[in-house]
Amino acid sequence: MRTVATVTVRPIVFWGYFMPDLSEWKPEYSVGNRTLDLQHQRLLALCKQVSSYMCDGTKASVDAFHVILNDLAFYAKKHFETEEMVLAQIGYSKLSDQREEHDAYREKMIEYMFSAMHGSIDKVSLQDYLETWWIKHILVSDMDYSEALKRAAP
Ligand SMILES: [Fe+2]
User: Fold this and answer.
1) Interval 60-109: pLDDT, tens
2) Ligand 1 centroid to 84 CA: how many Å?
3) Ligand 1 centre and the CA of 107: distance in Å?
4) Whole-structure pTM value
5) Cα 121 to averaged position of ligand 1 atoms, centre (Å)
6) Ligand 1 center–CA 89 separation, angstroms
7) How far, in Å, are 5, 6, 7 from residue 2 at the CA level?
8) 64-154 CATH choice from 3.40.50.10860, 3.40.190.10, 1.20.120.50, 1.10.357.10
């Protein structure tokens, strides 16, 4: 009989082949900082709102899309500010990469808000963008700093 060692394997993302479902929070998504985890959870809840959103053409449903977009931009801004502050405090070496990613997200949200102001309620495109962006952000970019955060913890 052969004994096989037990190993812990982090989720591996093969773009286009395997997309983990972040709609339900799991402990393995934690970056090791309660504030950042709570912000991630809030933002993922907003992404879930987008996936369940239905535009029926009424003013109320169009307004609801604008509210979701505003929330996605507002809470992401707060999260990015917190994240950049925490990472600066620990002297994280890839902080500039994080800032670039955050800037790209901000610019994309401005594009969606601009399009929505001009009547484009493109829920499918927004949902695709958010799923891809937040999965990569949390499971790849942010997981990369979680070890540095643990090392810097008092
Ligand atoms: Fe983050």
Assistant:
1) 999 999 999 999 999 999 999 999 999 999 999 999 999 999 999 999 99
2) 9
3) 16
4) 0.84
5) 26
6) 15
7) 10, 13, 15
8) 1.20.120.50
